[in-house]
# Entry
Amino acid sequence: MSSLRNVAARALRKAARILDPVQPIIYLEDEYVTQLCYINAGILERGNLYSFDYAIRHLPSAAPMLEIGSYCGLSANLLTYFKRKHGVTNPLITCDKWEFQKPENSTDHVGQSAIHYKDLEQLARDSYIRNIRLFSSDDLPFTFEMNSDELFKCWQAAESKTDVFGRTLNLGGPLSFCFVDGNHTYDYARRDFLNCDAFLQVGGFILFDDSTLEKDEVRLVMPEVFATGRYKLVAQNPYHLFQKTGAR
# Structure
């Protein structure tokens, strides 16, 4: 595993040398976005809003959009907002199992408190449902309580599944945009890329959250995206937004 990561790191440095110098981050914000970000819990790099806006304005078809990792619904509500802003009707599908990654050697309790991690997980799930019902009531995303591996297994098998809002959807088919923001370890992020790539349409987009952070292993997947020769870097604001330019 360490050798693979070293190779990936070297490739990332090489790829960085051929990219244009990093440009100032472009921010898109209005009153709605400001208020939503104040009240809806979530960890959001505001530069992602530019990437959301760009991808949604240039979607290649009416195929579904996918968000991996939902937490308390902030990014899902923002994706729905940009859909509404640009008159886009592509269904938004999200997935999250609301299972938190605990610090190494931690117990089931949060630090020295009496609060259990399962309590935080339930709070996040409940908050997601409440936030989505408020801010995206006119266009609820289909949200499945499963991790991305489980979702893609169902997607590949074209299974019918019921979401957290009690609606049933037939999964499967092409995707027009994928936002990868689930488990940020190298293995998970790499699998998320490979699974998204299997269904992402030519002309579609994929955005990787935290892909330029030194502490985050998502960055190690970026050289592999470049190496396929089938993706064009559209923006690094500061995270990588790619457009698919060719099929396998």
